[in-house]
Structure formats: structure tokens, C-alpha cells
## 1
Amino acid sequence: MAQPPIALTCGEPAGIGPEIAVLAREALGDDLPFFWIGDPRHLPAGTKFQLIDRPQQAIGVAAGTLPVLPHPFASPATPGTALPEHAADVIAVIARAVDLVQQGQAAAICTAPIHKKALKDGAGFAFPGHTEFLASLGGVDRVVMMLACPDLRVVPVTIHIPLAQVPSALTADALEETIRITHAGLQQDFGLPAPRIAVAGLNPHAGEGGAMGAEELTLIIPVLDRLRAEGMHIVGPLPADTMFHAKARAQYDVAICMYHDQALIPIKTIDFAGGVNLTLGLPFIRTSPDHGTAFDIAGRGIADATSLIAALRMAHDMSNTRGKNGRD
């Protein structure tokens, strides 16, 4: 039986989401079936699209035409200007995609960028972002954000918090849970039976034996020793400034980092346009382009769909791997 298509949410309709959805369809053709959930009025003028009633119909749509599962919004969109009346429907589209994937009508979810302030102002959105909302819809308490490109996968233990708060937020439980979820995700969705995990230190030179900070000795090493004793292949804590060159990257499958920029600077340096944001620990597959709504260029016809294309491809590959693991 053919794999169901991927559900692509519309995201913020005033951003570049509608444009890159069309560009992705043009680039991928019918080799990777997906459908867009949103209001057709928000697509760029002249877009060739076909309305569908159910996801499976997307598989039969001609390659140059975007399959659209319609979700009417309150009004048309103005590129670059988020409208409060759109917020509730942006949220509803995400929930609808989750429902479809949980029903087995979609293989995975790929989410176009949202504008969190617009959702909060327009609909009282109570979540910090996509990830936390999806965790709530999926009924899980803890998920992990991974950024991935062909040459690197990174996972930050702490994410969108001030740097000054990182030492207090970096607990043994948080580190251990992050590693466990990452390990399971690499096995289930990437087909790696024994993932090789590299863990960065928090401090310069990974603390240099306590001379530049004690967190490696008191927190990180005990967690890593405990997980290694269970059979996990883990190295570290490693100095973050020496673990991202090509020779070092060849020695591991994922880098666990202690804070946001420690993880995101290397991957965005290596592959700024093609990085993918994905969420591990959900009961379904979710990927997303690693960029925002780009209001400043929305509607100008210059948006780059490289990251969305990579996100759709990764969702497709992950769903194939998860399906194979389920059959084994």
C-alpha cells in the first residue's frame, strides 16, 4: 500500500509560507506527495492548485499543480502584515494536520513558519511555539528539538532562554531525558540501531578539569557515565570549539549541545539554507524549515524554498524508516 502523503500546514499566511509551498511542489513534482492545508486565496496569484476532499487524493494530482485541502480563513492575506483575525485559523490548521496524521491519513506533518506574537495577540496562543503546541496535541510532556542537514545533526538541551539562565536550567534530568529521546529518535526515525552521540561541555574547553567551570564534573559526566553503563555509545563532554570540523563530525551521528547558539551556529554555518527543524519524542513525525516567516520579503517572489524542500524530504524519509521499523 502506498504511503499516505505529507500534510504541509499553511503557517502564517502573510509570510513566505504560501510562496515556498508552491516552489516546493514545483521542485518535487509528484515524486514526493504532499498537500497544503490553508485558504487558496493566500496562495500567490496565478498558482495552479487543485482542491481535494481528503489527503489520499493528493497522490493523483498532476505534478505542476498544488493539492490543497481547503481551510477557509476570515479574509485574504496581505504579504508582510499579520492580521489578528487569521490567528485562530492558523492554530486550527496545525491541529487539523495533527488529527490527520494521528488518523493515518497523512504520513507526517511539515509545518510552515508561524508568527508567535500574531497568534498570541489574535487568539491568546498560550504556547512558546510550534513545538510545545504539538507536544500538547500529541499528549507528551517532553520533546526534543533537532536541527539537521546532510553533514550534521544537533540537539540543544536548553533552547529559547537567556544565556544567563542556562546553568540553572541545565539539570541532570533534562540532559538525561534529552539524550534518551534523541537516542530513541535516531533508532526509530533514522534507522541507526546504535547511534553515536557526542556531548558538548558547557564551559570553554569543557571546563578543563574544573579550572573553567565545574558543571562538566558535577553534572554532565555523571549522566554520561550512567548512560554509557547502559550500553549507549556516548563520547564527551567535548570542547565545543573542536567538535564541529569535518573530521570530528565523521565520528558521531548527533551532537548534544548545552544551549541554543552552541547548537545552531555550527549547523547554520555549514548549511544555512538547507537546515531542517524536527521534533523528536512526538507520537508522529514533524519537520519544519529552519527559518521564520520572513515578512520583509513576503510577496516579492524572492523566497528560497530550499529548507522547506529539505524538510519535506526528511519527513518522507523518516516516515519510510518508521514504517519499516514497524514492519520488522
Note: The chain has a mean pLDDT of 94.
## 2
Amino acid sequence: MTAPELIIDALTYGDIPQCAALEKQMFAEDSPWPASAFRAELNAPYNTYFAARERAGGEVIGYAGISTLGQPDAYECEIHTIAVDPAHRGRGIGKTLLEAMLTVADAVDAPVFLEVRTDNDVAITLYSRHGFSTAGIRRNYYQPSGADAYTMLRVPSSGRPLEPEEGPA
């Protein structure tokens, strides 16, 4: 039996209840996003959200979102979230979602920022393999658990140096 093909497409309003349920399951100790947060993210014109599915129109098994902020020739991107249903981890879904978001950033030659729990070795390794490096630490970033986060940065794909005023939004 062959593995199902992975489909990456746009996250839709119809996907919100499932995403909110996955949030409760995966991030219970760190203020999972309610449905209203997903609606707000999808409503923002500067955000791009992706869904991972095993078939077109199927259930969401992973999701990710990135914002593009600033002005032309000085854009920066921030990854808001990337999550994969625990039942589907270890299949490269997170990597595929990350690559979809990096395509958004590369299209505008933007640096990419994100926060990741300091104890999330799997995610840190994934980000490092895609050109991210640790730029700082945010103490007690995740609430209410109080877990720390690394701020990680990937420079623009062109290698364009960051302007001194550029930094995490």
C-alpha cells in the first residue's frame, strides 16, 4: 500500500473548527488559539495560511501561517504558527508546510522571523536545516506555561543584508 499524496492548499474558513480542535489537543498548556483567532488571521490581508491534507477537500492534518509586513524592498515575514496533527507526524508534513511559507518570503526577498520553544528540538532542527539561526531568547514567552522561546531568523534568500532597523516585528 502506498502512502497518500500530501496536498498543500489554502486554509479556509471551513477549516477553522478543525484547527481550533487541533490547537486544544496540541497546545493545551500554552493558550491554544480559539476559532476567533483563526478567523482574525484569515481576515488579515498580509497573512497567508496553508493547510496540509491527504486528499483535496479532505481533513486538515497540518496548518501553518506567515505574515508579510513592511514595504516593497523592505518586507519582512513572520511565521505565526506551524502545527501537525500528532497522528500524522514524522512524515515530512511540517517540512512541506515550512517550505510553502518560505516560498512566500522568497517571493518578496524577505527575512523570516519565528519563535520556537527552547525545548522543541525537532522544530529547532527543522528550522536550522532551512537556514534559520538563533537570534535571541524570549523568557516566559509561552503562557501560561512560562516556557521560553528562541527567536530564530532566516536572512532573505538573495542574501541581502538586513538593514540595522530591521528586526522581529
Note: The radius of gyration is 16 Å.
